[in-house]
Amino acid sequence: MPETPQQDGARRASIGARRNPAAEAAILAAARDLLAERGYAGFSIDEVARRAGAGKPTIYRWWPTKADLLIDVYSAEKAAIIAAPETGALWSDILDYTRALWAFWRGTPSGRTFRALIAEAQAGEAALRALRDKFLPERLKDLRLMFERAAARGDIDAAAVDALVELYIGFNWVRLLTDRIADDPPGIEAMARTLAGAPPGKAQ
Amino acid sequence: MPETPQQDGARRASIGARRNPAAEAAILAAARDLLAERGYAGFSIDEVARRAGAGKPTIYRWWPTKADLLIDVYSAEKAAIIAAPETGALWSDILDYTRALWAFWRGTPSGRTFRALIAEAQAGEAALRALRDKFLPERLKDLRLMFERAAARGDIDAAAVDALVELYIGFNWVRLLTDRIADDPPGIEAMARTLAGAPPGKAQ
């Protein structure tokens, strides 16, 4: 097992075990490919270990739960980072961001990975904590920017930002978890305008 | 195996196999209890069959997928039906409905059951179709009423109802799937007012 101890920063250290970069990359690549080929139903640490030529104890030492591994696969995939757009209006920011996010989910194993992560979190407390306390806060930073900028412009009440972010995340989760993330500009625009309070949205 | 063929309506017939009511009740009760005790991680058809004293072939004939069984457990639990409230304002309807829904999820095995169903739908197409095409449309009827009544009163644009329903569902899914459904009237009210466009919601 090629595990040369080395210093590689606070994030790694927080996981409680130092990693060999080549072995780590091989394991992440094997996990990504396995998800892409077989989805969550066919995803197992056994098979990841076999494909990566790594030992299961190594994988479990670096990623204590399957969820921790899935989070790192997702983050690595997000090299094509989706930045918060700045179109000047909240509704069109939301439209652009949503289309980019869904394209990312569709076009890479990331959609499957995220679905697997959410499913995993329903089966165990450790995975749930990883999703809620590690994955979500990290992923929401960019997204939240759109709403904070809109509040700064006076387009929405700053007090509504938390609720708007949560409503928006929810919309995306339901679409992903029911596999309805085909590109649909009119449908997405209707949601975006409703959420942003831009006409046509509500009478008052 | 106590399977006396009998007529019991279109819904049963649609599943493709007639059921013995006593055996069906025993299986649903066993499934509900197993979910309550062990959650999704400990849920298996093997264990349901053992507890109900039923054969696995019988269970699979009546509920082709685990998802179909979970849907019937959830529906049976919803005897304490949550009707759409009529407070006269959309935001307070949403507040009341959300508090009742979360209490239902917390106080019965239903929250766990629904989480298990969503997780199951990430692992297979049949379960996904059961969730999206059977469970969701059925469960959304009541909830949708709140928004349609608000549109009829002129409080919201009728064209926004679809998006509002989906945003609202999403909010609840995210909270359930990250296990944050403790009663929280101020937090829920903030979401409800934001969604309904009632102050404090947005500046414009």
From TrEMBL, chains A, B:
The keyword Hydrolase does not apply. One of its GO terms (molecular function) is transcription cis-regulatory region binding. SUPFAM superfamilies: Homeodomain-like, Tetracyclin repressor-like, C-terminal domain. Residues 21-81 form the HTH tetR-type domain. Gene3D superfamilies: Homeodomain-like, Tetracycline Repressor, domain 2. Keywords: DNA-binding, Transcription, Transcription regulation. Residues 44-63 bind DNA. InterPro entries: Homeodomain-like_sf (IPR009057), HTH-type_TetR-like_transc_reg (IPR050109), HTH_TetR (IPR001647), Tet_transcr_reg_TetR-rel_C_sf (IPR036271), TetR_C (IPR011075). PANTHER family: HTH-TYPE TRANSCRIPTIONAL REGULATOR RUTR, TETR-FAMILY TRANSCRIPTIONAL REGULATOR. This is TetR/AcrR family transcriptional regulator. It comes from Xanthobacter dioxanivorans.
